[in-house]
Amino acid sequence: MNGVKRKLFYVLGFEALGVVIGATCLTVLGDANPTTTGPLAVMASSIALGWNLIYTNLFELWEKSRGVEARTVWSRILCAIGYQLTLVTMLIPLIAWWMQVSLLNAFFLDATLIVVMPCYAFLYNWGFDLLFGVPEHLTMKMLEKKRPNQVTTPNTKIIQTFTII
């Protein structure tokens, strides 16, 4: 699966499962009813998705204005930290208002999500690639890097071939 179909399937699956995980965390930790935390998780997911689109574009404009030619580990860390910090400022007031808790309690609930969601994202991405394969552009890179004594199949498994001299 490649292209737009892959991206849509990825995003819809990621967000749907993320809402369930987020709502479950908020239900358990916030001692709240799922009918309260479910809609909150949908709102938080929608905000995170929308903010991700905006923030990523702003970050890329910042990179361009500084003449950045490649993304380093540090620039990726800066991007992730900046995104999370700005997202927190949006979600804490929402969580406090929706769940009728203090800003401090909302902070602790959101802090839990900040820990849980990146772990979930890592596992989801890994599982998605295992189930549906890596994107086409990565498959092509792997094919370009193969050594002469290796053959790469379309599903990216490497089979060692032996030559008899």
Mind explaining what this structure looks like?
By secondary structure, this protein is mainly alpha-helical. It folds into 2 domains: 3-133, no CATH class; 136-165, no CATH class. It is 76% helix and 4% strand. It has 5 helices and 2 strands. The chain has a two-stranded antiparallel sheet with strand order 1-2. A hairpin with a 5-residue loop joins strand 1 and strand 2 (158-160). Helix 1 (3-29) runs antiparallel to helix 4 and helix 2 (34-65) runs antiparallel to helix 3. The longest helix is centred in the N-terminal third of the chain and has 32 residues, at 34-65. Mean pLDDT is 81; it is low at 155-165.
Give a quick set of tags describing it:
165 residues; 2 domains; 5 helices; 76% helix; globular; disordered C terminus
